[in-house]
Design a protein that fits this description.
about 500 residues, mainly alpha, globular
């Protein structure tokens, strides 16, 4: 397309995964603060804080400690990866292609695509229920309203997302301040460790580590799209400022809202908040009708602010996953791998969690759907706005199952937590491979990523899978995310050889 894009907001973004030319570069490093602030000032971060006490049994101050540690660690990584954007002018998963190689990178790209679709569907369900409660509409019209807004913003693309997040960030701050006042006036901050919580077998230390792990896993989940929102910045942008504004923009709202979620558990006594929707929690916190309405508006706006990024980056990842050699057998191979992984996940889940025991036919259909979707993404490609539309419709189709939001959200979340375990080792390998020679037959990034996945596997402690080491040492909590990142970084650093750097990617189209 020949239309000048630049800083225009009312123009559909014409660029996909190609390098952004200097003539199109615009904005300042400070823009990253407002984007990541609004994207994380939403109900998912609030819900993470709830889990630290309601699910893991942490004391309030123990949960707060774990939340701070996990968020600082996660957003340190996000800041480093955001630096790829101004340097190369390409999306994050294209930088991953330069480190992993075209063939191997298809797998993390498809994983990023699936993660974007899955989290988009979960957030959309919660947003639709907030709209339903706010306007007293049936579920389907509420879902259509939320989907329509999300898809339009993502179709317009990068500039529209940045502008929307700037406005949404102010409104979300006001809404969550009101929620915080209602919460902390009733909270019991001296709440001790609860040994009767569902996953409290490891004691207080494990609960603190769980809190750090879930905060880290959420923040590191943004890593595969970090450079997507900094790639339009001028190449001469300060790397240090890019890091600081990204770090502060994500860390501040995530830490504050997760601590607020932990406080909410101590304020609403005698209620199972693990299975409650955000709309239900708002109803329990407020007694006044207008305050409930303010809380529901905040939930809805938070859904939109996070899902714009999930949808936009999910579409970019789908474009990166496309096999430029157009090999049908390769697409089928990738689809078969992800179908097999789906069967394994659900089979293992059924042996670990009684609520996840599905009939063979259901597992087979889920595997077929995942495998087919992955094969199509690898085999065929679209322009960026078309990919955003398709990803939005796929996520919307999944959100149609939201007639029982608690059960559906728990199902999707447990599935995606296992599926997203790849992100921490991937991020470690990516950071370690900066400046490495990717011309070798086997890249250091790939070796590091696989090593991180293998080493972290025995340490998983999740609802759907508990690794053998974690099973015998519940006091460890779930250290798999931290361990996977560290091992991947170390191995990739050892295997990678300084040389050609990733700079060759800048000239690639």
């Amino acid at each position: 397309m020949s239309t000048a894009y630049g800083a225009n907001v009312a123009v559909v973004e014409p660029h996909g995964i190609e390098r952004i030319d200097e003539g199109e570069r615009h904005g300042s490093e400070r823009d990253l603060f407002s984007l990541w602030f609004a994207a994380n000032a939403e109900t998912a971060t609030f819900a993470i804080g709830i889990l630290t006490i309601a699910l893991y049994g942490a004391s309030f101050w123990g949960a707060a400690l774990g939340i701070v540690v996990g968020n600082v660690a996660g957003y340190v990584v996000l800041g480093f990866l955001s630096q790829f954007g101004p340097r190369f002018g390409r999306p994050q998963m294209v930088a991953s292609r330069a480190a992993f190689g075209s063939n191997a990178n298809v797998f993390p790209a498809v994983l990023a695509f699936l993660g974007g679709v899955g989290w988009f569907a979960i957030n959309t369900i919660f947003g639709a229920f907030a709209v339903q409660a706010l306007f007293h509409l049936p579920y389907l019209p509420s879902l259509a309203i939320v989907l329509g807004i999300e898809i339009v913003i993502a179709i317009y693309g990068h500039n529209m997302i940045h502008r929307f997040e700037k406005v949404a960030g102010v409104a979300l701050t006001i809404g969550f301040i009101a929620i915080a006042i209602a919460c902390f006036t009733r909270a019991h901050l001296g709440t001790p460790f609860n040994a009767h919580a569902p996953l409290a077998a490891g004691g207080e230390w494990a609960a603190i580590e769980y809190s750090a792990a879930i905060a880290f896993s959420y923040s590191i989940g943004w890593a595969p799209c970090a450079a997507d929102y900094s790639r339009y910045l001028p190449a001469k942008s300060s790397s240090r400022k890019v890091w600081w504004w990204t770090f502060l923009g994500g860390m501040i709202p995530s830490t504050a809202l997760e601590i607020l979620g932990a406080a909410a558990v101590t304020a609403i006594v005698g209620t199972d908040l693990v299975a409650a929707t955000p709309s239900e929690i708002i109803g329990k916190l407020f007694s006044s009708g207008w305050l409930v309405a303010l809380g529901l508006i905040t939930v809805t706006l938070g859904t939109l602010s996070a899902n714009c990024l999930n949808l936009y980056s999910g579409a970019l990842s789908a474009l990166v996953a496309w096999d430029r050699l157009r090999r049908p057998w390769f697409a089928l191979l990738v689809g078969a791998c992800f179908a097999a992984a789906t069967v394994v996940i659900f089979t293992v889940a059924g042996a670990t969690d009684a609520t996840a025991r599905f009939p063979v036919l259901v597992i087979a259909l889920a595997a077929l759907a995942v495998g087919l979707l992955c094969a199509l993404v690898v085999r065929y490609t679209l322009v960026r706005w078309q990919a955003a539309l398709i990803v939005g419709l796929v996520g919307g189709a999944l959100a149609l199952s939201g007639t029982h939001p608690e059960q559906v959200a728990r199902l999707y979340t447990n599935f995606l937590l296992l599926l997203s375990s790849w992100a921490a080792p991937w991020a470690g390998a990516m950071i370690a491979s900066r400046g490495a020679d990717n011309s070798r037959r086997v890249s250091g990034a790939l070796v590091g990523w696989l090593a991180g996945l293998v080493v972290s596997f025995p340490f998983y402690q999740q609802s759907w899978f508990v690794g053998p080491i974690a099973a015998h040492n519940p006091q460890l909590g779930d250290i798999s995310y931290f361990l996977g990142f560290a091992v991947a970084f170390i191995v990739a650093r050892i295997v990678s050889v300084p040389g050609a750097k990733l700079g060759a990617m800048a000239a690639e189209t």
